[in-house]
Design brief:
The protein is an alpha+beta fold and 167 residues long. The chain has a domain of 115 residues: Aminopeptidase (3-Layer(aba) Sandwich), CATH 3.40.630.30. Helices cover 26% and strands 30% of the residues. It has four helices and eight strands. Strands 1-2-3-4-5-6-8-7 form an eight-stranded mixed β-sheet, with helices on both faces. A hairpin with a 2-residue loop joins strand 1 and strand 2. The chain is globular, with a radius of gyration of 15 Å.
Length: 167
């Protein structure tokens, strides 16, 4: 599996042997977010992992501190050129250490390599640190393309450069 290593933290694309860990982290994420409406069909999503988070566009990324799982994020296709970032989560004891930024950088890189030209994500106003991170990474507010899944949820998008054409 491709990975990114720095200061004891490894960011890897989660293979099938890591789905149990991903379920555990997704459940921790669910408990940390006070917006039950964000988790409609969540049990089905967990049972079906990797589900929509499969290549070539979809993927699940896992952050490990040595062998300890400390964070995750997923990306899933919306259409041929657009993908959605889902479930960015870093365990509380590991926050403010750059792990979230590294997970998001891995997702952005993967999306670009998969030919995605626009990334979408929804965030809640209470997730101030995440919103700052998304803005630093070039995400900007956009009109919702559907009704937000939670009251006050905001859609952010990031446009990516189209892949270079050979020839």
């Amino acid at each position: 599996m491709p990975s990114e290593h720095d200061s004891g933290i490894v960011i890897e694309m989660a293979g099938s042997s890591r789905m149990g860990i991903m379920r555990e982290l997704f459940r921790e994420y669910e408990r940390s977010v006070d917006a039950p409406v964000c988790f409609e069909d969540f049990e089905r999503e967990l049972e079906g992992l990797p589900g929509e988070y499969t290549r070539p566009v979809g993927a699940l990324f896992l952050a490990l501190d040595n062998t300890m799982p400390v964070g995750c994020v997923g990306i899933r296709p919306q259409d041929n050129l657009t993908a959605e970032v889902k479930r960015l989560f870093v365990r509380e004891s590991c926050r403010r250490s750059g792990i979230g930024a590294r997970l998001m950088t891995a997702v952005i890189r993967h999306a670009g390599q998969a030919g995605v030209t626009e990334l979408h994500l929804e965030t809640l106003p209470s997730m101030r640190a995440a919103i700052r991170l998304y803005q630093q990474l070039g995400f900007v507010p956009a009109p919702a393309y559907h009704h937000p899944t939670a009251p006050g949820a905001q859609l952010l998008i990031k446009r990516l450069s189209p892949p270079a054409q050979d020839g």
